[in-house]
């Protein structure tokens, strides 16, 4: 859940692009899927580049000559070879691109032919040249919906597979004016999904690959998440379009996937806001009132407390607390076990530090 913020910063003019993860040259190149095809049967776009040929993207409708399925790289990469396999696994020709082409682009805008697909597949070597995007396209209308099993790319610099495949499907059926905003925010949540999951990973946990994001006129809160669905208020986000962090907070709730109702609400919300304010938008948490703040103040207050304790005692504190809450074993005693001090002693110490 979200409460309206008391410490809102004036960010209304900042474009959403500012919220993209900052990539450095040493990291694998990030990829975005751009396609004109709507997803069918929750067979999401990112399954076409997740390193697993058994998973696949499926389109809802049969593609026409104007459709495309494109991987766009964060920056140009020298590609040595490229292959694509279409069609559903173990189902003959079902979902194959019967007549189509594999194309590449140096700038992400103008594409040139690399190969024609044969039996729904293509595999080609390339001369060393920077590539910004690769795509497949039908060269005639197709009889059936398309299935894209996997792109395989050999390059001089590693390209990041979708390790945590995700699709955030937008529903603005009662607030169509919010559709463009919601689609942008959905792409931001998808881009951040790997990092959010990395921060909250635990053994045996398989994150959801499909989230619905519904923006509603009739909802009177700010935003909430339950059962893999995010609900947001059109009224609130119309007047706070910069508040992408609120949707990141809800995305974190879906990743948390805590089933145990004995987990304290202040800590569940505190972890969500910790990820928001110390990973997604560092420096935006606003002032914390030392006189009134306590560790169990929830939301950003607890987030600031967790940041203090993690910084001073245990950098993996949040990961450990998350695992305990996911496994249903959390007790306040955990703070004593992890830091040597009770949560009340840590609270006193933190509040004194805030006063300085
Ligand atoms: Zn919440």
Can you walk through the features of this model?
This protein is an alpha+beta fold and 356 residues long. 28% of the residues lie in helices and 23% in strands. It has eight helices and twelve strands. The strands form two sheets. Strands 1, 2, 3, 4, 5, 6, 7 and 8 form an eight-stranded antiparallel beta sheet that branches. The protein has a four-stranded mixed beta sheet with strand order 9-10-12-11. Strand 11 and strand 12 form a beta hairpin. The two termini are 31 Å apart. Zinc ion binds next to helix 3 and helix 4.
Distance between the termini: 31 Å
CATH class of the largest domain reads: Mainly Alpha
Please trace the helix and strand order, writing H or E for each element. Answer: EEEEEEEEEHEEEHHHHHHH
What can be said about the biggest beta sheet?
8 strands, antiparallel
In this entry the ligands are: zinc ion
Low-pLDDT stretches: 4-18
Integer average pLDDT: 92
- Return the CATH architecture of the largest domain: Orthogonal Bundle
Instruction: Count the domains.
Output: 2
Question: Helical element count?
Answer: 8
Structural class: alpha+beta
Give the CA-based shape. elongated
């Amino acid at each position: 859940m979200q409460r309206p913020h008391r410490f809102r910063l004036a960010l209304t003019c900042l474009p959403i692009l500012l919220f993209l993860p900052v990539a450095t040259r040493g990291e694998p190149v990030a990829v975005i899927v751009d396609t004109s095809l709507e997803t069918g049967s929750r067979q999401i776009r990112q399954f076409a580049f997740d390193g697993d040929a058994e998973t696949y993207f499926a389109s809802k409708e049969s593609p026409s000559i104007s459709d495309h399925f494109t991987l766009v790289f964060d920056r140009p990469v020298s590609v040595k070879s490229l292959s694509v396999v279409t069609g559903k696994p173990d189902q003959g020709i079902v979902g194959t691109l019967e007549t189509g082409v594999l194309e590449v682009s140096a700038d992400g805008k103008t594409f040139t032919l690399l190969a024609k697909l044969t039996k729904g597949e293509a595999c080609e070597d390339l001369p060393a040249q920077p590539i910004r995007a690769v795509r497949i396209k039908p060269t005639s209308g197709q009889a059936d919906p398309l299935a894209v099993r996997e792109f395989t790319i050999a390059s001089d610099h590693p390209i990041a597979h979708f390790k945590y495949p995700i699709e955030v499907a937008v529903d603005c059926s009662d607030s169509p004016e919010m559709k463009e905003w919601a689609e942008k925010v959905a792409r931001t949540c998808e881009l951040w999904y790997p990092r959010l999951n990395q921060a909250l990973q635990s053994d045996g946990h398989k994150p959801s690959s499909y989230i619905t994001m519904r923006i509603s006129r009739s909802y009177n809160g700010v935003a909430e998440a339950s059962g893999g669905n995010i609900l947001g208020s059109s009224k609130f986000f119309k007047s706070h379009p910069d508040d992408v962090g609120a949707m990141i907070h809800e995305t974190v709730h879906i990743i948390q996937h805590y089933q145990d109702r004995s987990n304290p609400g202040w800590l569940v919300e505190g972890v969500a806001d910790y990820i928001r304010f110390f990973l997604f938008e560092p420096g935006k948490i606003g002032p914390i009132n030392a006189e009134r703040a306590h560790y169990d103040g929830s939301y950003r207050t607890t987030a600031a407390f967790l940041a203090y304790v993690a910084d001073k005692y245990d950098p993996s504190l949040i990961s450990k607390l998350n695992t305990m809450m996911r496994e249903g074993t959390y007790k306040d005693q955990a703070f004593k076990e992890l830091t040597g001090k009770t949560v009340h002693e840590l609270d006193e110490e933190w509040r004194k530090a805030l006063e300085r």
